[in-house]
């Protein structure tokens, strides 16, 4: 009696198993036909047809390429955009960073003007003097040149095809006093304490709140393309001060010989010429700040 009840159950189970196995064989055969159909369609149409399964595989490979270094056809390792560009950047990223201050900066740009007075003529009676700390006249220049030298704090003046470079050294009775920069001196001008100005990596700040050599990090400048086609790493060193640069978070960014009005000035492109831009900044110290100073050869320049 028990055996007669079991036998129909076994038959039913075998029938279900056979149906599942047959379905699996049909599905496997369909996949093979799909692959063959793509190949046949490519052959007969003359067009390259993308198999969706291959596209999925390619998408997975592309993701792996973005996340990891790959090798090109010559077998050389290529670094992706998610990796640092050189060993120096890797060292900086792997070095501890201590943040002492952060906030939104108030910015401006200053530069090293080259003023060709051989091309600009002014009445000699209206010329003004650039004088040194002892009051001795260094050169007589047109008023426009005098204003530019005083505003920027450093300048080059061309007269009779000779170039003279001047840098503010002192301020006496409300008047800036200048030194002539020697030809073997800092080629981009001097900041405070005779520190060389480093184009695109120097800032002027209020020395009541900051010290020369302090390092400022501005995230918005990371990857900024510079005139020499290098990418900015976001770090600046305080090397200068300014009569109108007052308070915490107030920085004047130095762009070398590139005018603040030049549309090619990378600082202008991100709004550093506008005091209302208010980009984020961090003042850092410790090992990473020391590494930045070493990389920029502070107080000299690379």
Describe the structure.
With 302 residues, the protein is of the alpha+beta class. Among the domains are: 133 residues, Barwin-like endoglucanases (Beta Barrel); 67 residues, no CATH class. The chain has six helices and 15 strands. The strands form four sheets. It has a seven-stranded mixed sheet with strand order 3-15-12-13-11-14-4. It starts with a helix and ends in a 7-residue tail after the last helix. The N terminus is likely disordered.
Fold blueprint:
Layout: H1 2-45, H2 52-67, E1 70-71, E2 77-78, H3 87-93, E3 98-104, E4 106-110, E5 114-116, E6 128-131, E7 137-141, H4 143-152, E8 154-159, E9 162-172, E10 175-180, E11 202-204, E12 215-217, E13 235-240, E14 250-254, H5 266-269, E15 280-285, H6 287-295
Helix pairs in contact: 3-6
CATH class of the domain at 87-111 and 188-295: Mainly Beta
Main sheet makeup: 7 strands, mixed
Record the strand order, biggest sheet: 3-15-12-13-11-14-4
Q: With helices defined by DSSP (H or I, 4 residues minimum), what is the helix count?
A: 6
Short structural description:
The chain has 302 residues and is an alpha+beta fold. The protein is built from six helices and 15 strands.
List keywords for this structure.
302 residues, alpha+beta, Barwin-like endoglucanases, 7-stranded mixed β-sheet, 4-stranded mixed β-sheet, 6 helices, 30% helix, elongated, disordered N terminus
